[in-house]
Amino acid sequence: MLGYDWPRLHAALNDLPAALLLVAVLFDLAAAASRRPVLRVVGFATMLAGAVGGVLAVVSGLQAEEHIAHGGAAHRVMESHEQLALITLGIFAVLALWRVAREKRMRGTERGITLALSVGGLGVLIATAVLGGRLVFDHAAGIPSDVLQQEMHERAAEDHQHGEAGEEAGHDHAAPAAMTDSAAAPAAAATPDSAGSGSRTHTHAPGTLPHQD
To answer: For the whole model, what pTM was predicted?
Structure first.
């Protein structure tokens, strides 16, 4: 499908509806705070677009689940991610359809209830996104096993090369110090010991009788 499999298609589709639904709730909150109808209209239109995009994201995600290699831990996270995604879509789909039917006749209490449901749906949406991130970054979901093994092999090779480069650099830095120590040794040996050899190198004043050691 234009070079996309289901996991890649899901990754391409799931960000936009999440952003649209977030913006829709923010516009509705701003409309409630400022009592400006134009903000409510923008929030309504944005929610409709986000709900439609949410359908596409959920459908692609359900298909991607069948084509992703994953283990038991990733499967448990995937199931929770799927459940929260369906709850999120259900909340915003019902809200969007309700507002299509009631937007122009909606009054204070009814509008307050829809706004509260929107905020609740936004919380579920954020939890869904967090689990989706865990699937990718903690469990490498969507990355084929052969690609993951190749990446691990390349990383190990890069770490090995960096380690060898660090050892060589350490040896280069140690060589001057060793040379300095070896060069300083003869100088230290040539310097008379002020405590032990002073009696053998001092001279007597003229006319002084020599003494026996």
So the answer is: 0.70
